[in-house]
Design a protein that fits this description.
alpha+beta, about 20% helix, seven-stranded antiparallel sheet, Immunoglobulin-like
């Protein structure tokens, strides 16, 4: 049994083979298909009404039963993680700790100090010290159980899996004895719905901790080095290009500023796309001779030397548009190239999706001739199923790993 100093995390090794348990047994529960499971804990009045993750801990002979962790129970309620900690006899601890690792290493990034009157959630500021307050709340307590509700995204942001363990200094008990318990949003969530698409029939979507609806069969292509090479190159041509667009280029995650910059890029493309003439032919020859998707420096070269940008297929237009959005500092988690079916199940169309104010919007650069409004709105002009992309292509540095429903 390890002793962990107050608000310090020990070097804890991951446990392979954690399993789902019911009651006192160590038998795994099969959650394939997200079947509902219900059980009344026999020694107290806590009821488990949904998908659950249970870890049972053996009765430690050297630990008083009131200080001895018996089980950890987790489930999702709304957008929150409900954590219940059970003891072998009426709880007799003044405080204990619930730790979470968010990066799969041996130490915790989140520490929850649990007391009878309340719990405090803090984030690590330096190894072993938790000085950034994230959340506080009042537990629901019974004779044998201590239950707290934790807002998933406040603590874990866009992660869908974290590692957890418990430790009590008074009694020196730990659950599990070594390693961690894996808590997965997808093992616990049961919120899903069916969307009727234009060309593929009904498709299943599930809800993420952030509240997004994501396609269960969606494909994410994160080979940004292929689709967005040289994204951070700077030279005189790039400076001239960005100056011509005329907006700030510092990284931003602000909704209003993101839309403002997207508007400026869209309006710039309206007047700088080349579709005919000698400059178009020269830009086309240059573009097609690259042998790769163009970097921002190569896009800038077209602008400086030919007065505009070669305007090719839907994928090339989307790649150009997305590269410029990245160039003006829009955070890569806020947009991606999307791929959807168009007219028939074998015909695909590419466009850009943008996340603002809790919603995904689509902006199709094939429709660059359309005016873009001052307030966020989707823009499309084809019969593509914009709302139901089948895949996305992410930008350098993006953490997007799901294909969202575009509402």
């Amino acid at each position: 049994m390890r002793t962990i100093p107050l608000f310090l995390c020990g070097m804890l090794f991951l446990l392979s083979g954690n399993h789902l348990c019911t009651g006192e047994s160590k038998k795994a529960i099969n959650l394939a298909g997200y079947n509902m499971y219900q059980k009344m804990i026999p020694d107290d009045s806590i009821f488990i009404p949904s998908l659950i993750r249970i870890y049972n801990d053996p009765n430690e002979p050297g630990v008083p039963d009131g200080k001895d962790f018996r089980r950890l129970i987790c489930r999702i309620t709304g957008q929150n993680l409900l954590v219940s900690i059970g003891f072998y006899s009426p709880r007799n601890l003044s405080y204990f700790f619930c730790y979470f690792s968010t990066d799969n290493d041996k130490a915790a990034e989140i520490c929850v100090r649990c007391q009878s009157g309340g719990f405090e959630v803090s984030e690590e500021t330096q190894p072993g010290w938790y000085n950034t307050h994230l959340y506080s709340g009042t537990p629901n307590t019974t004779t044998y159980y201590y239950t707290m509700e934790l807002p998933w995204t406040t603590l874990f942001h866009n992660l869908d899996t974290v590692q957890c363990w418990l430790y009590a200094m008074d009694g020196k008990d730990r659950l599990p004895d070594t390693g961690t318990v894996t808590i997965s949003w997808w093992e616990l969530v049961s919120v899903s719905k069916t969307e009727t698409t234009l060309y593929q029939g009904d498709v299943l979507y599930r809800q993420t901790p952030e509240g997004w609806w994501i396609r269960t069969d969606g494909k994410v292509d994160d080979r940004s080095h292929l689709f967005f090479p040289g994204s951070t190159i700077t030279n005189a041509d790039v400076t001239a290009l960005l100056d011509s667009i005329g907006c700030a280029t510092t990284l931003t995650n602000n909704d209003a500023e993101i839309w403002n910059r997207a508007v400026q890029v869209w309006n710039w493309l309206q007047t700088h796309q080349l579709t005919s003439g000698a400059n178009y032919t020269a830009a086309q020859t240059y573009y097609q001779g690259l042998g790769n998707w163009p970097s921002i420096a190569q896009i800038a070269y077209m602008y400086v030397h030919f007065g505009g940008i070669y305007w090719g297929t839907c994928m090339s237009r989307s790649q150009l548009f997305a590269t410029l959005l990245f160039g003006v500092g829009i955070h890569p988690d806020r947009f991606a190239i999307a791929e959807a079916y168009w007219k028939a199940s074998y015909s695909q169309h590419m466009y850009v999706i943008l996340y603002l104010n809790g919603h995904w919007y689509y902006l199709d650069p094939t429709c660059i001739f359309q005016s873009i409004p001052a307030s966020p709105a989707s823009i499309g002009c084809t019969s593509a199923d914009y709302a139901h992309p089948v895949g996305i292509f992410t930008l350098p540095g993006s953490s997007l790993s799901y294909v969202p429903l575009v509402e």
